[in-house]
Specification:
Strand content: 15-25%
CATH topology of the largest domain: TIM Barrel
Distance between the termini: 23 Å
Oligomer: single chain
CATH class of the largest domain: Alpha Beta
CATH superfamily of the largest domain: Aldolase class I
Number of domains: 2
Low-confidence stretches: 337-341
Number of helices: 12
Number of strands: 15
Shape: elongated
Helix content: 25-40%
């Protein structure tokens, strides 16, 4: 039996083309689009504005929501991780990370990750495949309609490297942003990258003003290559140059993500190097205490050590936000929960 195609992988224009190809009026596409993105209809039976034969034809060819809930895990700090099963038995895990009045969601873009950062759980079971645009969009739909979350921000920072699945990520962003659908503002979406330079170069031509976040985690090539093997292919000086070019092209705010790991990248020397990069890029720094992964030999710094590193950066005129590591008690770091089931 062939796999049903996700209707959420279609933008409105593609849906119109499909309906024309099967002899239906183009306005049917808008009816379906609005039903999915404005009313949260995941079952073709709900589309009573469509003739029954057409609903049956759609149900035989498409699925609206390809994600099947496997498990939820709720943290004492309000973080909720949702583990969804994909049709072939793989898993994907969006995370809701509330902070005050904000309700950001961290979305996955791949099953597993091929970049194998030394401290991250996402790559422990290897890379399985890219998520389709529909599977990325469906994470948002599930959080919004199935679980009733009024999301304020979307961060493509979960399992996988978004710029390694750029076509599907950008298509998903366009669908999420479409004013005829979810109408979610582009400036409330952030793409995070470990440093895929060709992806950064392509992203600067993207017509929507999404934010860019770059994971640094060390200000030296030697340590960064140890922590992030991608640095051997795209060295830090080249990455900083690409980021500088990206800023010149559109003037968007750039964020540097820095996971602080005890006794590894938490020295004053590292802080000085990070501050120099941040000042050059006019970037703010998100400082994050490491969330331990049982299989990995790295430790979380004490709160005083995080505050000390923050102070070193601020003394060097860098804007710093200490991002609390949420969901430590539910293994909410990227890939941890899916890794148990994969």
């Amino acid at each position: 039996m062939s796999r049903l195609q996700e209707l959420t992988s279609f933008n409105l224009e593609e849906l119109q083309d499909f309906f024309k190809s099967v002899g239906e009026p183009a306005y049917r596409a808008r009816q379906v689009f609005e039903g999915i993105y404005q009313r949260g209809w995941f079952d073709f039976a709900a589309f009573t504005n469509l003739p029954l034969p057409l609903r049956e034809k759609l149900a035989a060819k498409f699925v609206i929501d390809p994600l099947q809930l496997e498990q939820t895990a709720s943290s004492a700090d309000g973080t909720v991780k949702y583990l969804f099963r994909l049709p072939e038995g793989l898993f994907v895990e969006p995370v809701l990370i509330p902070a005050g009045d904000r309700k950001p969601a961290c979305l996955s873009t791949q099953v597993g990750c091929k970049f194998r950062c030394a401290f991250c759980a996402s790559g422990l079971n290897g890379f399985k495949r890219n998520l389709t645009a529909g599977e990325i969009v469906s994470q948002v739909l599930s959080l919004k309609f199935q679980f009733g979350h009024n999301l304020t921000n979307l961060v493509f920072m979960g399992m996988g490297e978004p710029l390694d699945n750029l076509e599907n990520v950008l298509k998903a962003i366009r669908i999420i942003n479409d004013e005829r659908g979810l109408n979610f503002g582009a400036r409330r979406m952030t793409i995070s990258t470990a440093g895929v330079i060709p992806g950064i170069k392509r992203l600067k031509e993207f017509e929507l003003q999404v934010n860019l976040s770059i994971s640094i985690h060390s200000s030296t090539d030697r340590l960064r290559s140890r922590l992030m093997p991608i640095n051997k292919k795209y060295p830090l000086p080249d990455l900083v140059g690409a980021a500088e070019d990206y800023i010149r092209s559109g003037g968007r705010q750039l964020t540097l993500e820095y996971i602080l790991i005890k006794d590894l990248n938490d020295s004053r020397y590292e802080a000085e190097g990070l501050a120099a990069i941040a000042r050059r890029l006019k970037a703010k720094v998100n400082l994050i205490a490491y969330s331990p992964v049982p299989q990995l030999p790295y430790s979380r710094p004490e709160e005083a050590e995080v505050v000390r590193f923050q102070r070193w950066l601020e003394e060097r005129r860098v804007k710093v936000t200490v991002r609390q590591s949420k969901g430590v008690d539910i293994a909410a770091a990227c890939g941890q929960l899916a890794g148990k089931f994969q």
